[in-house]
Amino acid sequence: MIRKVDELGRIVLPIEYREALKIKGKVDVDLKLEDDKITIRKAVFGCHLCGAATNLVRIGNECFCKSCIQRLHEAKDGDILYPLSIEHR
């Protein structure tokens, strides 16, 4: 989909995109520049793996909780780890 950028550098996100990401009103979005493209995604303020909002460590642009970091640290070669939901922690 092609959109025009206005004189202030703004674009309008199509309603179907906003609905798909459950973006309503003023919501933070995460912008990432890679080579010749810009990626826009709904900002996540929690562990990238389980969604927890506490005990977070930021690695680059992503947040991970200490519990998930511990699970990764204890993982052995060949282990398959699945994200835990906050309810299962």
From TrEMBL:
SUPFAM superfamilies: AbrB/MazE/MraZ-like (SSF89447). PROSITE patterns: SPOVT_ABRB. One of its GO terms (molecular function) is DNA binding. It comes from Caproicibacter fermentans. The lineage of its organism: Bacteria, Bacillati, Bacillota, Clostridia, Eubacteriales. This is AbrB/MazE/SpoVT family DNA-binding domain-containing protein. Keywords: DNA-binding. Residues 1-45 form the SpoVT-AbrB domain. Pfam families: MazE_antitoxin. Signal peptide: none annotated. InterPro entries: SpoVT-AbrB_dom, SpoVT-AbrB_sf.
